[in-house]
Amino acid sequence: ISLLSSSLRAQLRFEICRPYIFTHPLFRLWTAMDASSGKRICVEAADIGYLRQQDDLFTAGTSTDKAYYVITGALMYSQDPESSAVESEEQTEVGAETWLSEASLWSHWTHVGTAEVRTPVEVLHLSASALASTLRRHPGIHEVALEYCKHFHRRIVSAKPPDALWPSDLQVPFTDYGDLVTSMKKEVQVSIGLSAIS
């Protein structure tokens, strides 16, 4: 790979990461708005790693600026009353094609559970700081990102019983892409709509 030109290496990395990044509609949108931004996200903000059985992807109580996409394998996500707003220990199996810790892209996030590898895992790591740096380069994408971040963060802060579950590394209530887009300023919604039909 070191024999390839930097542009070919970037294209290769984009082709490797694209199927996983594109599972999230926001990244598809940004790439539709500007193809080079999609490529930069894969080259500068994404990395693929491998973990063995009984490794921890992350542990409760640790801060992070990374979101994760499980490509292959399985994990057990555990929460307990010492580190989470749960009454008793809870465990959830997490399989392939799952995003974890998306809240870390839009807030200062501390894991509220532990993700332990059950079967060997291939995982995409997405760095929030590198993503933010990449998104600042394109004004239209940056505007969408700021709006998305603002509304995602509001939902993190407001997610609490009895109206919603507490946020976790697996989900933040009411952060479905469509819900967030319909909360954005009208001009940003128009920009998103125009990108979707072009």
TrEMBL record:
SUPFAM superfamilies: cAMP-binding domain-like. InterPro entries: cNMP-bd_dom_sf (IPR018490), RmlC-like_jellyroll (IPR014710). This is Cyclic nucleotide-binding domain-containing protein. It comes from Alexandrium catenella (Red tide dinoflagellate).
